[in-house]
TrEMBL record:
Assigned EC number: 3.4.13.9
Enzyme category, top tier: hydrolase
HAMAP family linked: X_Pro_dipeptid (MF_01279)
Name used for this protein in its record: Xaa-Pro dipeptidase
Alphabetically ordered keywords of this record: Dipeptidase, Hydrolase, Manganese, Metal-binding, Metalloprotease, Protease
Enzymatic reactions: Xaa-L-Pro dipeptide + H2O = an L-alpha-amino acid + L-proline
Lineage: Bacteria, Pseudomonadati, Pseudomonadota, Gammaproteobacteria, Oceanospirillales
Gene that encodes it: pepQ
Length: 436
């Protein structure tokens, strides 16, 4: 795999170089300088949050932790990487990996944070505003010109074969973590135990995960971005929801699985199976030319079928959607774009850069584009029993089977999520099937 990946990465860098030079020609630029960024300390403290380099910088280098570094692209020379590598006995000095892609750059290792010398018409991309209050002067150039920034976001929306390979590997590594998390649940572990099992099996530090892992037992599975890990296992074991990913060379996976516990009603297990089938049917609909927002509507129509067929809604599927009941059972979008950022760029803009906001009835949808080859998206239908969202329906004549809903509320909810690449002929599900 390594040889193939190295060749794909070299092709990826050449693709970027060609695209950037064409953008420089269109925007009459002499250089584009990408800033990796730098961490700022917590207020009134000398401790820093975990850092990750800016997306456009990582698009070329995958140097996740490179701070105070620059990549300068010009029309007629090798890209120049100015890597901040201070001599330091407090911290490990940054170094470049022993990988062939390094040879595609002219590399300068600098001991002190410094701005590159630039002249002519230059676009600076990244959080260069943060330099204004620091010891390094903002270099010559215009910071984040909107038209160019949009064009670079568009470039990231369409993944190269190298990027697809990285996303596939990120999925493979993450799935090992999901299998370990499921085993930890079967062993009656607490949320913290399950989180640690996930990290160990997926071989990553907590500071390197692409987003904070969601590990929710029982009612916590109904908190969409649940942010804690209980230290003690609950008395009852109704459910586990794990929404967790992995990075590979900077690219993120984002996988969710839900499991029924021994104390869950039998219906909850049947609903999980139905949601897996719903996810698979939506994945099969991914293809070039498909309006992603139409998948959101399709998710709600099929979710209504599940609610009706499992006696949670005692009316027709059409009425279930029209009444807003499906939105109370699933308040989030069907998914989002995926790449260097877990919620990747350009999801809510049209190709020409104009805003393309989410539909009024589905404000949480993060992607409104027409799908095209090279895009990578998540597909993540959900079904939740969240009291604050369902409570308003109690005061209407919407025919929800409340006794059954109340039996399921200790389970929190269900979310099933895969990562899918759009191909010329349809889709490629990057998330491996596992025995869980």
């Amino acid at each position: 795999m390594a040889d193939t990946l190295d060749r794909l990465q070299k092709d990826h860098i050449q693709r970027l170089l060609t695209a950037y030079r064409e953008l420089m020609r269109q925007h009459e630029l002499d250089a584009i300088a990408l800033y990796s960024g730098h961490a700022l300390p917590h207020y009134g403290d000398d401790q820093y949050p975990e850092f990750q380099a800016s997306g456009h910088f990582m698009h070329w280098t995958a140097l996740l932790e490179a701070q105070h570094s620059w990549l300068v692209i010009t029309p007629d020379a090798k890209p120049r990487l100015v890597l901040h590598a201070p001599t330091d006995f407090w911290h490990l000095t940054p170094s470049l990996p022993d990988e062939p892609w390094v040879g595609e750059f002219d590399i300068e290792l600098v001991n002190e944070a410094t701005a590159p010398a630039l002249k002519g018409r230059v676009a600076l991309i990244g959080n260069v505003e943060a330099l204004q209050d620091g010891p390094v002067a903002v270099p010559h150039g215009e910071a984040n010109p909107p038209a160019l920034t949009h064009a670079l976001d568009e470039l990231r929306l369409y993944k190269s074969p190298y990027e697809i390979a990285c996303l596939r590997e990120a999925n493979r590594l993450a799935m090992a973590g999901h299998e370990a998390a499921h085993a930890g649940f079967a062993g009656a572990g607490a949320e913290l135990d399950i989180q640690l099992a996930y990290l160990g099996a997926s071989r990553q530090r907590e500071s390197h995960v692409p987003y904070d892992n969601i590990v929710g037992l029982n009612e916590h599975a109904g908190v969409l971005h649940y942010q804690h890990y209980d230290l003690n296992a609950p008395t009852g074991r109704y459910s586990l929801l794990v929404d967790a990913g992995r990075r590979f060379r900077g690219y993120c996976s984002d996988i969710t699985r839900t499991h029924a516990g021994p104390d869950a009603p039998a219906l909850f297990g049947r609903l999980i199976k139905a949601m897996h089938e719903l996810k698979d049917s939506l994945v099969a609909d991914v293809a070039p030319g498909v309006d992603y927002a139409s998948l959101q509507l399709s998710m709600h129509r099929r979710l209504a079928d599940i609610l009706v067929s499992h006696d949670l809604y005692r009316g027709t599927a059409d009425d279930c959607v029209a009444s807003g009941a499906t939105r109370a059972f699933c308040p989030h979008g069907v998914g989002h774009s995926l790449g260097i950022q877990v919620h990747d760029v350009a999801g809510l803009t049209a190709p020409d850069g104009t805003p393309a906001p989410a539909p009024e009835d589905h404000p949480a949808l993060r992607l409104t584009r027409t799908l095209a080859p090279g895009m990578v998206v998540t597909i993540e239908p959900g079904l939740y029993f969240i009291p604050m969202l369902l409570e308003p329906l109690r005061h209407t004549d919407v025919p929800v089977n409340w006794p059954l809903v109340e039996q399921l509320q200790p389970c929190g909810g269900i979310r099933i999520e895969d990562n899918v690449a759009v191909t010329a002929s349809g889709f490629d599900n990057l998330t491996p099937k596992a025995a869980i």
